[in-house]
Specification:
Number of domains: 3
Distance between the termini: 54 Å
Largest sheet: 5 strands, mixed
Oligomer: single chain
CATH topology of the largest domain: Rossmann fold
Strand order of the largest sheet: 2-1-5-3-4
Length: 580
């Protein structure tokens, strides 16, 4: 048991473990110490000094985010000296910040804007003396505006510490200081996986997502187009946050109603193609297992992970499943199978995806993704973009009456739902693999061994005598650990691995609502597991619409038509970006 330390903060006594910061101790008391550079996912940096507090006996103000507690410490978080220092710091930051708040994508969700309001900054007495930097729009998914950067270093630290990609770095000094990429290149020219986590941790509008809303609205308003939308599993437990609902609130029916009110011709569910993914992926895994080649097989649902694999481990790309992601399977099927059944001209279909993921925007324009004879998915909107679109259209998600998805590709199971959380793809695959191997009905469908948000999860699963060792990793730092373990000879004997690029899985994707709730990942995950439990069907192979797809069109999982439409091999990883 760690040693305890007792101190006083704002006349309130508190006892915490030794090593906790003053900021952490204040949190246990419910006291809010404002921060800007600090983020709970990465190591303290103490760069902005917004979190300064007064420690009795100390000559200078102390940064609470990094200042450790000590026995008998007396801390004042809201003294006149502290308040004045914080206001001055924020005022100086505002002096060198663009004054385009009304048109900034982070308007009303900007942490600097919020700090200025809460700290009572009513004027900026200093003139701007910062250089003007060029906007970086070279990435297919992200936009960087260095002029809005406050040098908090969150993107630098998250990309290095959590994702281990180190795309960003500090350059120059003093007046010319800037956060940039290697040699000042654009994001489209460096080894950026497009996970979008930098846009989530950025407190201002310096890193934002490319918005395709206007393209979608133009398609909806074109009478010659049939606009069909799919919604990813993780969106249903996060979209509610855009209207103030707590993380994990299940708003599936309301989201469907909102999309129909926006004018989409069909509203379908990515859970359906998540179920199809499982049928293909489980079949592929069992085939590889029986043949003993290209093992361990690694899931391919996360495009950020695929980008990482291509860029950092190109010699091991044959280990990933050839199965496309549910988004791209949907795109291929909606312009072939669905169009055929509905009597639609695929040339008139505009396929739109609502996704929690920023890398999905790039995935949709990869040159391999045209199995339907067209671009399979035309546009991708993030959960954040959909939330803003609903608001701008005068639609209040909270008051909308829930509606159901449209039929044929609108029915999903609980197995499809849990795709949105780390471990979910593995669990869904195991639910299918068990019955495919044993020919018996699986009664307990929950594989708790692969659930959880900590570390790399390992398990040995007994498929009625056939034992397989599996692993689950989320976040690219853990993906790197997994790949290095495989390079070292796979001493754990893994045969099947799930990897998600974002920590926590899709529930914490780069396109999800930005949350400062310390437990937002676990709350969203809890919502998906609740949705799984509440659905009448929890195994992909039990989905009657999936059964009809194979019976009437694909014939069998892993068959010739399935391989043509639903599987892929990727282009040269060194030439993977398409400028947009």
């Amino acid at each position: 048991m760690s040693e305890k330390v007792s101190l006083t903060i704002d006349d309130l006594p508190v006892t915490v473990p030794q090593g906790v910061t003053i900021w952490g101790a204040a949190q246990t008391l419910g006291l809010k110490i404002p921060t800007l550079c600090h983020h709970f996912d990465v190591k303290p940096y103490s760069g902005c000094r917004v979190c300064v507090v007064e420690v009795v006996g100390s000559r200078a103000l102390v940064a609470a985010c990094s200042g450790p507690v000590a026995e008998g410490l007396v801390v004042k978080t809201n003294s006149p000296k502290v308040r004045e220092a914080r206001r001055l710091i924020v005022e100086l930051l505002l002096a060198n910040h663009p004054r385009d708040c009304f048109t900034c994508p982070r308007n009303q969700s900007c942490e600097l804007q919020t700090l200025a309001l809460e700290l009572g900054v009513r004027e900026v007495r200093f003139e701007q003396d910062k250089p003007t930097w060029e906007l970086d729009e070279s990435s297919p998914s992200l936009i960087r505006d260095p002029n809005k950067c406050v040098l908090c270093g969150r993107c630098v630290r998250f990309c290095a510490e959590i994702q281990t990609c180190s795309v960003y770095t500090f350059a120059n000094r003093g007046y010319n200081s800037i956060v940039t990429t290697a040699f000042g290149q654009g994001l489209g020219e460096v080894r950026c996986t497009l996970c979008g986590q930098c846009s989530v941790v950025c407190p201002v509008g310096a890193i934002t997502v490319k918005d395709h809303t206007e393209y979608v609205l133009n398609a909806i308003n074109n009478p010659d187009k049939i606009v069909i939308v799919q919604t990813a599993p993780a969106t249903r437990v996060a979209l509610g946050e855009t209207v103030g609902l707590p993380p994990g609130s299940i708003v599936t029916g309301k989201m469907v109603a909102g999309l129909k009110r926006l004018g989409f011709d069909r509203v379908l569910d990515t859970n359906f193609t998540a179920d199809v993914t499982i049928m293909e992926e489980a079949t592929e895994f069992l085939h590889r297992l029986s043949e003993g080649h290209n093992l361990p097989m690694i899931t391919s649902c996360s495009p950020g992970w695929i980008n990482f694999l291509e860029m950092f481990y190109p010699e091991m790309v044959e280990l990933h499943s050839t199965c496309k992601s549910p988004q791209q399977i949907f795109g291929a099927l909606v312009k072939t199978y669905y169009a055929k059944i509905q009597g639609l001209d695929p040339a008139k279909i505009v396929s739109v995806a609502i996704m929690p993921c920023v890398a999905k925007k790039f995935e949709s324009v990869r040159p391999e993704m045209n199995a339907s004879g067209y671009q399979d998915v035309d546009y991708v909107l993030t959960t954040r973009e959909l939330g803003l679109l609903l608001k701008s259209s005068g639609l209040d998600l909270k008051t909308l009456k829930p509606e159901a998805y449209d039929p044929i590709m609108g029915l999903g199971t609980g197995a499809g739902t849990i795709f949105g959380v780390t471990g979910g793809v593995m669990e869904a695959a195991l639910r299918a693999a068990y019955e495919l191997v044993t020919k018996k009905t699986l009664t307990n469908v929950e594989f708790n061994e692969v659930r959880g948000l900590t570390g790399i999860k390992e398990a040995e699963i007994d498929l009625d005598g056939t034992k397989i060792k599996v692993a689950v990793g989320h976040g690219l730092g853990r993906a790197r650990q997994i790949m290095e373990t495989i390079k070292a000879g796979n001493p754990h004997g893994w045969s099947f691995i799930e990897v998600m690029a974002c920590p926590g899985g899709c529930v914490a994707g780069g396109g999800q609502p930005i949350s400062l709730d310390l437990a937002y990942r676990s709350k969203r995950a809890k919502g998906l597991y609740e949705d799984d439990r509440n659905l009448p069907l929890r195994k992909s192979q039990d989905n009657p619409e999936v059964q009809a797809l194979y019976r009437d069109y694909l014939k069998e999982p892993g068959g010739a038509l399935s391989h043509q439409l639903l599987h892929t091999s990727f282009a040269n990883p060194h030439e993977r970006f398409i400028k947009s």
